[in-house]
Amino acid sequence: MSFSPSTTWRRALARSLRRPPWSPEAWRDARFIAAGIPLALPVWGAVTTSSLLFPVLAVVLVCTRWLTGVQRSRLRALYGVEVPPPGKPATVRLRWLRIGLSWRQITYHLLVGPALAVGALAVVYLWGVALALATLYAWIWLMPLEVGLRAQLAGLDVALTVIGVLLLVVTPWLATLTAWLEVRSAQILLGPNRAEALERRVEEIAESRAGLVDAVDAERRRIERDLHDGAQQRLTSLAMNLGLARRTLKDCPPDAMEVIVAAHEEAQAAIDELRDLVRGLHPAVLEDRGLDAALSGVAARTPLPVRLDVDLAERIAPTVEAVAYFTISEALTNVAKHARASAVDVSVRTAGGRLRLVVTDDGVGGADASRGTGLTGLRKRAASVDGTLSVLSPLGGPTTITVELPCAL
Fold this sequence. Notes:
Enzyme class: transferase
EC number: 2.7.13.3
Structural class: alpha+beta
Organism: Kitasatospora aureofaciens
Number of domains: 3
Catalytic activity: ATP + protein L-histidine = ADP + protein N-phospho-L-histidine
Oligomer: single chain
Keywords: ATP-binding, Kinase, Membrane, Nucleotide-binding, Phosphoprotein, Transferase, Transmembrane, Transmembrane helix, Two-component regulatory system
């Protein structure tokens, strides 16, 4: 279940107001709103004074970015809230001066911020009044007053003290409410707007996905090296020793020789399976000699005639090379299993910073990704690097699969 930002903030405010007034968070709220008074209250006083309105407006326009940075620092240092920097503001050129204008920021510094500073000043004033009234009873009895005056104050000092104690209970909640309003208004007016936040989030997701694809490809390379240099070498050594025993132990009992022969054949079969597994993880020839040589090996292993045409001016990004290799490999496997084709054409070209892969077969056609064929997996593999895949497969053939990938991530 998902909640809107307003719902989340309402719940956070409700939790804050349920805190006891003497909690550390309440004192943090008071410090936070008090620190904002010197920043915004002078602007309020100047705005309400007609003679200073235009000079202050000019100063705010020129210092908008600096004031925004100070407010964001206050939020981060005193309240632990990070307000992301807003998008690039519109630039206005005034002869020798260039000003970055953001109307949301100007609205905050000229109207919202000063209004909240007045509220914060009222809360701080209530703190002082509450402390003074809460201790009034003690001060009256400690001061050397005349008996008659002390009798006149009897009852009044108790009432004022009770009022002071009640204000000490209520004022922290007012500070929390004021702090909440400051944080919300700063996030709305000083941070990025909704469109900018969504755009930034999309960029972060794209970078995260690219990093994940690179990490997966690096891990495949590591597993391939470990299997090739470790388990595959040991199996090869075992197969060689069993083959040597099979050839040299001529006087071995027949039952023992059958065991040696079976073990030798199993070891060779295991080597073949492991070699296919290593090639499926990440072929060494792809890293050493590039996409052209790796696809030549795939074409040679395909049980159909494959006409391969590769024209690459230079090496592309390793991750894109891996995606292109496995895409064509899976496409050829699908053709061999389902297309009933007699030949396949594979074309690999680069143009305009994109790698274009085209696989065409003369099979029966009718390929449809919605019917659970391997095309869905091919499309997802291409999309992992912001690539696209299109399929043209009328009934009766031919089938053409076109994949476009970025040459660099």
